[in-house]
Amino acid sequence: MTIKTPFGHPMRHAHFAFSPTYTPINHGSFGCSPLPVLSHQNHLQTLASARPDTFIVRDIPKLIDESRTAIAPFLGVDVDEIVLIPNATTGINTVLRNLKWEEGDVVVYFSTIYGACEKTIASIQEGVMIEGLKIELQYPVEDSEIVRLLRGGIGKVQSEGKRVRVAMFDTVLTFPGARMPWEELVDVCKEMGVLSLIDGAHGIGHIDLRHLGKVEPDFFVSNCHKWLFTPRGCAVFYVPFRNQHLIRTPLPTSHGYQYLDSEPEPISGGKSLFVHLFEFVATMDYSPYACIPAALDFRQRICGGEGAIRNYCYDVARIGGQRVAEILGTEVMATKSRTMNECCFANVELPLKFGSTREGHRKTDRVFDISEAGKIGVWINDRGVKDHDTYLQIAFHAGKMWVRLSGQIYLEIKDFEWVGEKVKVLCERVQKGEFRRS
């Protein structure tokens, strides 16, 4: 398939609506949609305004079915094993709040968990006396060690006579931006009789997931509005047939819910209860769900297909991240095997040293106390927005400060070089203590 618009700035100018002065180096957080997809969404919203009742009651269910049918092959699953929801956080909540917990049950997860997901576990613990086992991960770390740590964590809990109900992990981490060995982690869960719950927020449109149906995790959710180019918010939620009885309600509970003590209500169109549960959850804008075919058409017809997109995004992230590291005089986070780098992210170390005031560093060492890391990160982010019209995703990990950069089809190496120069100046301002005066 021929790429009709060259990747890089020609793609940006022809098909994206960024402000001329904005440098979009953080695609991973919220994604963006190309103009043809946004135009299709606008068309759908116009139809909804013209005939609200007809569109919401009759048209949207059909459009959602078309989207489900279109996306199922991207996961290698049956169309009736997937439904559409607003975002990955909703999917994680849906699973955790549907499971029937018993006191003493354990949820196992890694320290790199997305913050909202960890808080979901904490919220559930307010009502049920379940336990959480957090397995510490300090990157860079090889896949084999991650797998070993999960097996060891589950085994330790089980040796104490407790039940590990769920193990939760990612396809690609939010921070650091790194591909996880999620397939092997699913295998560990199967071995040890534990439900696997995958936060694939950075999944579909980012890494190849066509083997998901063969890997067969117990639950999986992935945002389409990040890397697949649908409008926000749209996510695909996969529950294999064997587990659909565990999901009794969407969030919020709505019309598809069936009372336990009554005869099942009839479901029109021959749809399964699982699909029916999520077809209409509440009054909201369902147009992002119906934009999946338009997004897939853009990716195929304009971009040349998934392989071409992945190859470009991986390469521009890898090469661009290395150029930023060269400008800063630092390194890109990587493992020897480099499997963590098989994604659209590059994590580049900032030229700032951190330690403890108790360690006896001299003032000339320019070593910042770890307690200042949060303030420094916020300041760099703030100055990136105000001074340079860009958004820098900054985080502190393993005693160092990093910027996470996203590769995307509308970026070029020169964008990374530009960011590298701006970050270098911001770090020099940090060294002068400017962040303390703001």
TrEMBL record:
For this UniProt record, the keywords arranged alphabetically read as follows: Aminotransferase, Pyridoxal phosphate, Transferase
Annotated GO molecular function terms are: transaminase activity
- Record flagged with keyword Kinase: no
- Keyword tRNA-binding appears in the UniProt entry: no
Identify the residues that the record assigns to the Aminotransferase class V domain, covering every copy.
61-240
Give the matching Pfam families.
Aminotran_5 (PF00266)
Instruction: Indicate what this protein is called per its UniProt record.
Output: Aminotransferase family protein-like protein
